Amino acid sequence: MHYLDNSATTAVSKDSAKRAYEIMTTEYGNPSSLHSMGYKASKILEQARKTVALSMGAEEKEIFFTSGGTEGNNLAVFGAVNARKRRGNKIVTTAIEHPSVLESMKELENRGFEVVYLKPVDGSVSIRQFMEAVDERTILVSVMAVNNETGLVLPIDKIPAVIKKKNSPALFHTDFVQAYGKLPCKVKKIGCDLLTVSAHKVHAPKGVGALYIKRGTKIIPNTYGGMQEGKIRPGTEALPLIGAFGVSVEDFSIEKNREYVQDLKNYCMEKIGNIEGLDVNSTDFPYIINVSTNCIMSQTMLSFLADNYDVCISSGSACHKGELSHVLSAYGYDSRRINSALRISLSKYNTREDIDQFILGIKKGLEKLVRF
Fold it and tell me: Is 319 tagged catalytic?
């Protein structure tokens, strides 16, 4: 199998899977229990919290474990807005955010909030656009670090200065899910109040993630229950997943992996350049390549590649299965380009053999498949 859909999810590393199994079978105590098994479990929980905090340059008390990116984004967006709604009713985001943010924004619009969606201009979203959108009524700015379909890197480190310059009471949240483990994640340098990450994008199990909340930042929780996670996200912690998450984070080698993946992308782009008629929709981010054939429906090509060449890619976000890409629509592309888009996303486990098989498959697909 040639798996090239790592923006959707990644293979769990052997060390991470081993740790999850160990915790499930031998260290399975509840971290809130007062006996020895509970004490051991609480030590595992706090070690993972320390590891994730170190990866972000954060304090341990600023890290709250969640079930993943969607819950983390919802908690950040609704929590921030509910905490600041007396200071304004305006939110600034982009039109290319993950569905977990965009659907949250639609719900907030239904509740009477004004949401400004910035669209890419000439392939990017500039800091000037944020300068024009943020004002004294803005209570939240929520912007992803890296787009999950095109790999567009947004200027998140410049947004806090905009908020300050415009005398805005806004909290700044960034969805760092696609960037985590690939770009440096230093929350103090970014200047964010809230930051979301997800474990299954970094070779850890699905069902766990983390939300960074800057010390002193108040948000209103979405759920209520016990004392776990400082009452921000109550409920018994998924300790096997959290422990496995910590192991994967310990295995980060951002510069080394980025160099390796950049070489793979360069190799792939060289091969793609020899195929007539393809449009490239992605940017310089090494881990994501997005192209359009402009002649064959995405799903048709995806099925052909999977069935005949054991190649797994996607047409865009796995969370909007089968729907027209809102990201490429926001770029202003025509329907042919959008309907024929293919996303190839790489990881440290991919090889040139994977790229060769994809290139072979797409060439054969262009020869054999019915064009629209």
Answer: yes
- Identify the pLDDT of residue 324: 78
Alpha carbon dihedral 23, 25, 30, 35, in 10-degree steps, equals: -110
Beta carbons within 10 angstroms of residue 224's beta carbon: 8
The token pair at 141 is 């700015």
Q: Which regions of the chain are under pLDDT 70?
A: 317-322
**Could you identify the residue written with the tokens 């004002």?**
135
What's the CA gap between 304 and 297, in Å, rounded?
A: 11
CATH (domain of 236): 3.40.640.10
- Helix (H), strand (E) at residue 94: strand 90-94
Angle between helices 298-309 and 352-368 (to 10 degrees): 120
Domain check: are 230 and 157 in the same one? yes
CA-closest candidate to residue 98, choices 160, 50, 143, 46: 143
Chain position carrying tokens 């890197």: 153
The domain of 141 spans: 14-250
In the set 185, 192, 295, 319, the catalytic residue is 319
Interatomic CA distance for residues 316 and 342, integer angstroms: 7
Q: Are residues 351 and 204 in the same domain?
A: no
Summarize pLDDT for 217-230 with one digit per residue, the tens.
999 999 999 999 99
Q: Please state the three-class secondary structure of 159-178 as a single string.
A: HHHHHHHCCCCCEEEEECCC
Instruction: Judge whether 3 lies within some domain.
Output: no
| DSSP 3-state percent helix, strand, coil across the chain (nearest 5) | 45, 15, 40
CB count, 10 Å around CB of 155?
16
How are beta strands 288-292 and 279-280 bridged, if at all?
antiparallel
